[in-house]
Amino acid sequence: MGIRGIVLLALLVLSLLLAIAWLNRPSHDGFLADVAVNFASEAFGFVLTVFLVNFLLRRHHHETEGRRVAREMLRDIDHAVWVWLGGKREFGLAEAHALLTQVNDTHHPARFTESMLIAAGSHAANVLRTHPQVMDMQPALRQAFESLIPLAGLRDGRPGETLPPTEIAHILLAAEQPLCAAGRVRPPASALPAPTLDASEKAQRWRHSGEA
User: Fold this and answer.
1) How far apart (Å, rounded) are the C-alpha atoms in residues 128 and 12?
2) Which of 2, 44, 96, 182 could share a disulfide with 141, CB 3.0–4.6 Å?
3) Structural domain boundaries of the chain?
4) What is the C-alpha radius of gyration for the chain, rounded to an integer number of angstroms?
5) For the segment 75-86, what is each residue's pLDDT rounded down to a tens digit?
6) Can you give the pTM of this predicted structure?
7) What is the dihedral of CA 178, 181, 184, 185, to 10 degrees?
8) Helix count and strand count (H, E) for the chain
9) Long-range contacts for 168-172 (Cβ within 8 Å, ≥24 apart)?
């Protein structure tokens, strides 16, 4: 039930109470004035309480939804980075961060890896479109998703031309901290041993589909 429905229900209940009070009214003067004052006071307090509770519930919902979409995007990024650059197949932002900081322009993502990155960018654009209130409450989260949108246009240039690997890595790294903050995930430590990076097409194919 929406806020309008709750308020209408509250007014209906109060109106019913007023009708009952009227039917059981005493005969002394001033009854109607007293009832009107009490009714106005109760109605104001009840409606104010309903609005406050509804506001807090909606705020909690938007915060919970922001946490969910942030964590979902972090998992998508982690998986794409694993397929692209290697490392262990488990959710590990520290490892993904360390791998991304090693990327140079010889580490080209394979075509199927590009598709995963494009999907992440398209998903970011869709979340921005479908969750405007969540993004309004969390500007850093909006900034993170907006920074990922260029991934959706990874192949928008001339045939055979895509974003340079270092630019892709920069986009993913820029979104990392605000996504961690919104998702309440511990950000990766900066001083970690660098994992072995293997961005060869053969290795990417093996991680993606298990084909040697």
Assistant:
1) 38
2) 182
3) 3-57, 63-209
4) 28
5) 999 999 999 999
6) 0.75
7) 60
8) 8, 0
9) 168/103, 168/109, 168/117, 169/100, 169/101, 169/103, 171/147, 172/77, 172/81, 172/96, 172/100, 172/148
